[in-house]
Write a structure and sequence with these properties.
By secondary structure, the chain is of the alpha/beta class. The protein has a single domain, classed as Alpha-Beta Barrel (TIM Barrel), CATH 3.20.20.140. It is built from twelve helices and eight strands. Strand 4, helix 5 and strand 5 form a beta-alpha-beta unit. Helix 10 packs across helix 11. The longest helix has 19 residues.
Length: about 250
């Protein structure tokens, strides 16, 4: 049986990339870091790439120019909100980051989307925001939480996306239920230690680590990941906004 393509649930891709290059990358959820970038990205129509609407917590200009009405308008074009969240190492004041994230969560409560959340050095704060404003479709990207935090996230219905860097943490892999896991590269940031040439869509190292952790073949892991994406998409109710190539893959499950 022919396997479906790998899933990269969080990568950064140049908006001007040629369409043929994107096809070669497979299924990629492309995160943007500002509303300006998202406006350009979500005007594209690519069969296997989901362009996100994001406001990165580490970018002062993006945070300062964030506008909730603009975010809400842009999110109408796509099934993906990314990259949003909180960053404890950012120079952007935490109060500013929290105000932006709260506005984002209000929007995706009304219009649920697959929402990829950054939580570096701010795991407790992100979980607190999700507890205060629960959403469907939360995916905690590059998860580094401890056992207690992971249990809280699972109870909140969160999924977890794992890249080559986090896949080296066997302790973290052991905490995550396989039916809540998705793969990512966070290219060009999270795939520097993957053992293969870095590029969006190249998640084989992560699949192999998940296979070792769960005593499953890579084919079984790939199938499980697509089933996870199918359940996540169904829970959010945004399948109609996905590119046609991804809809076909999900329909074939």
């Amino acid at each position: 049986m022919r396997l479906p393509p790998p899933i990269d649930l969080h990568a950064h891709v140049e908006v001007a990339i040629d369409a043929s290059e994107l096809l070669a990358l497979g299924v990629v959820f492309a995160a943007t870091r500002s509303l300006e970038e998202a406006d350009r990205a979500t005007r594209r129509d690519d069969p296997q790439t989901v362009w996100g609407v994001g406001c990165h917590p580490g970018l002062a200009r993006a945070q300062e120019s964030f506008d909730a009405e603009t975010f809400a308008a842009l999110i109408e074009r796509t099934a993906f909100a990314s990259e949003v969240g909180l960053d404890g190492s950012s120079r952007v004041p935490m109060a500013t980051q929290q105000a932006t994230l709260r506005d984002v969560l209000k929007v995706v409560q009304r219009a649920p989307r697959i929402t990829s959340l950054h939580s570096y050095q701010a795991t407790e704060q992100v979980l607190a925001e999700l507890e205060a404003q629960p959403i469907r479709g939360a995916v905690l990207h590059w998860w580094l939480g401890n056992a207690a935090q992971t249990r809280r996230a699972i109870e909140l219905g969160c999924y977890f996306s794992i890249n080559a860097s986090s896949a080296r943490r066997v302790d973290i892999l052991g905490l995550l239920p396989l039916d809540r896991v998705l793969t990512e590269t966070d290219h060009p940031f999270g795939d520097r230690s993957g053992g293969r040439t870095a590029r969006p869509g190249r998640v084989e190292t992560v699949e192999e680590a998940l296979g070792r952790a769960h005593a499953l073949s890579q084919a079984q892991i790939r199938t499980s990941l697509w089933n996870n994406l199918g359940r996540l998409t169904a829970s959010v109710g945004c399948a109609g906004l996905l590119p046609r190539g991804i809809r076909r893959q999900l329909a074939a499950l």
